[in-house]
Amino acid sequence: MSSTEVKIGEVARRTGLSVRTLRYYEEIGLLPPTERQAGGHRVYDRADLERLYRIGLLRQIGTPLAEIARALDGPAAELSAAVDRHLAAVDARLAATGRLRERVSAVSRTLHEGGTLAAPAVLGLLDDLSAMDAGLTQRITLLVYDDIQAAHDHLVSVFGFGPGELERDGSGRVVHGEVHIGDGVVWLHPPRAEFHLASPGTLGASTHCMAVLVDDVDRHHRQSMAAGAEIVTPPKDQPYGYREYDARDIEGGLWSFMAPLDKLSEEVEHDG
Length: 272
Prior knowledge:
This protein has a 4-stranded mixed β-sheet with strand order 3-6-5-4. The protein has helices at residues 8-15, 19-27, 46-60, 65-73, 76-112, 119-133, 148-159, 200-203, 217-226, 261-271; strands spanning 6-7, 43-44, 140-144, 162-168, 174-181, 184-189, 209-213, 230-237, 242-248, 254-260. α4 (65-73) packs across α5 and α5 (76-112) packs antiparallel against α6 (119-133). The chain contains 10 helices and 10 strands. The protein is globular, with a radius of gyration of 23 Å. It has 3 domains: 6-73, Multidrug-efflux Transporter Regulator, Chain: A, Domain 2 (Orthogonal Bundle), CATH 1.10.1660; 77-133, no CATH class; 140-271, 2,3-Dihydroxybiphenyl 1,2-Dioxygenase, domain 1 (Roll). The longest helix is centred in the middle third of the chain and has 37 residues, at 76-112. It is an alpha+beta fold and 272 residues long.
């Protein structure tokens, strides 16, 4: 092995990715297979590390795993589209901040001109300012499962979520897991009686219903069925403007996979 080649454990340490994630990237074709040493151990070269860096950058701006390969290997338009989507999200946040600034400015003008404001209006504005000042940066969803290892593997293999870290206690039991869904992350947590946290498998009822936006509802439905998903309702256009289907995970949690009907209509017209 040359000085420019490193083993998977060292790559995981350098990048902060788990070994499971690195292997999954190769499995889905995101990281092309390269040289292997005797014994089948993969080694990574400089090109692999540079590609992982670019994958990390695209993940940071919310690019789904399914789109990253196209952004890296496809025409320049694919990368441009990914950046444009991130730009739109940044613009939306800036617009929200701008609207809040206008509200603060209006209150300031009223007070400087000797006017008065009703207490609810002032308190509402202070609430909004407090939320901004709190430095809220990301929402993380926490779901409870009795068998985190099995739930993690099920969500990855059946629904196509990105694999994340699995943490074990001293006995080797998995006590925390993560899966990545688009630009979000879901933590898999064990039951905790003191916090009244129980899995749907234990209670016999869905303790969560997660909605996930997908590009193609019918294609995702076919892939999930082929992987053994328990389908609750097949793809259907809903009166509230979405096409969706529902499925249960390995412990009975309910998941809805959906796409806006107006977006689907635009895609059909564009393809036509």
